[in-house]
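Entry:
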Amino acid sequence: MSRRLFILFVATAALILCQAASCLAQESHCIPVKALKESDLAFQSGEKMYFTMHYEFGAINSDVGSAEVALDTVVFNGRKVFRCVATGKTTRLFDFFFKVREDFRSWFTVDGLRPMKFSRSCHEGRYHATNLYLYDWSDDDPHIDADLYSTKQGQRSEVMPLTECTFDLPSLFYFARNIDWDNLEEGVKYPMTFAIDEDIYNVYFIMYGRETIRVKGLGTVRTVRFAAKLLEGEVFKGDEDMRIWISDDDNRLPVYVEAPILVGLASGRLMKVEGLKHPFTALIDKKK
C-alpha cells in the first residue's frame, strides 16, 4: 500500500496535477497556457515544496509518508535547463511494514518547458525499478529512447512515440502550472497524456470552479478544483475521479489531492513551500 500512496502523491501532487496540461489527443496543439518564456513562468529556480501523504481505511487514519519537489537550473548538453527533483519516502513507522523510497528527476528547457531527460528510481520493499528517458526531437523522427529495469522484467530498451505535447510527469506538472484557466470551460473533459515506464497514458481532467478550503498544517486557501479520471488497474478504481485543489493565484500550487484507491482513501497535502516567484496570495489564513 505504501508504494501506491507514494505514486499517488509524488506522481499526483508533484505529478498527477501535471496531467492537467497535456495535449489534446487528436490535435496538434496542447491545452492553452500562458507565455512559456522563463520570465513569464509561474515558478522560478529555487522553489521547493513539501508534502505529507495520508491514508484512511476503517480504523486507520494516519500520515504515512512525505514528499519533496525541488526546482533548480543546470546545464544540460551545453544548454541552461530546469531540473526537477521529486522524492518521497514512507515514515519510520511505516518503514517497519513496507519501506518505500522514490526518486523522480526531469530536465526541461527554461523557455518552452520542452522535456530533455527523465529518470525514475523506486525501491519498494524488495522490488526495484528504474526509468531513463532521453528525448530525441529530430524533425524527421521524434521519439523517446527509454532504458528500463525492474526486478520482475529485468533490463530492457524501448523506443516510445513523441509529440510536441508528450511529457514525463515532472515536466508536465510544471507545464500545467502555466495553464490559461480563462480559456477552460467548467465541466468539460480535457484529454491529457503522460509517459512512465514503457507506457503512454491518456486520461482526462475537468475543472469544477473555485473553492476555499482548509488544509491541515498550511491554512485556509483559495483554490480552483479539478478532477482527473483515474486509470483503472492495480492502484486506482476506474469508476471514480481523483480530486485536486490548486492555489488560485499566480503560483498555481497543488495544495490538496485525494483519490479513492482499491482499499481506502489516499490523500496528500502541501505543508510548506519555499522560494516562490509570486506572493502566496491564495493563502488567506495561515495555520495557528
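The chain has a mean pLDDT of 83.
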